[in-house]
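chain below, 227 aa
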Amino acid sequence: MLAELARHIPYDISDKIAKGGVYAFLGTTGVGKTTTIAKLAARHVIHHGAEKLVLLTTDNYRIASHNQLKSLAMILNVQIKVVEDLKQLPLLVKSLSDYDLILIDTPGMGYTDPLLKSHLHIFKQCPQVNNLLVLSATTQYQMLKASLHSYYIAGLNGCVLTKLDECAHLGDALSMMSEHSVPLAYVTDGQSIPDDIAVLKPSQLISRAVNMLKQYKNGQLQVQKSV
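prediction:
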C-alpha cells in the first residue's frame, strides 16, 4: 500500500536550484516562503559564492518581510531588489540574466484574495521563472487542496513542503500530493539555516510519515499507562 502511494507522488530527485535559474516562491501567509529562500540562498553562497546570486521581493504588503530579506542579503553579502511594480517583473528578470541564481519572495495571499489571479497571471507571463508552491505540512487537506487549485494558474513547476518538524502526521500532505501532478522539489524540517532543507524521494517521505505515526502511538500508550 505504501509503495503504491509512493508511486503516485511525483517528485524531482535533482536539486533544482543547485543548477541555477530563476525561482519564485508562491503560497499563503506563514507557510515559510522567506525562510525557505534563506536556506537555499545561504547554501548557494557556501558552495558557489555570493557574486552571482540576487534576491527579489515582490512583497509590498509587509514591511517585516522586506526587513527579513534585507537582513539576509546583508549577512550573505548578496544583491537584493524590491519590485515596486509587479508588472515590471518580466523586464527586471530579463535585465538580471548575468546572475546564475535569482530567488523571488512573494506576498502571502489567500485563495480568496481578489488580487491573487492578476498577481499569478504576471508570473505565468514570465517563462524564465520557475514557480514553486510552498505548502505547510501542518495544513489540513482541504486547505492544501484549495491552495494548490488557486495557485495552479501560475503554471507550477514544483512544490516545497515545509514544517515537517511541526506536524504530528503527514497524511493530509501525502494524500494531496498523490492526487495531483506537481512534483515535490524540497522539504524543510526546522529553522536552521542552511541545514534544514532536503530533496526527498516519496518513499523516504512516507517512511518518515510511518515513523511519525509510530512515535505518536507510542506517546499515546505512554500517556495511557501513566493515567
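The chain has one domain: 2-226. Residues 58 and 84 are 7 Å apart (CA to CA).
thats it, cya
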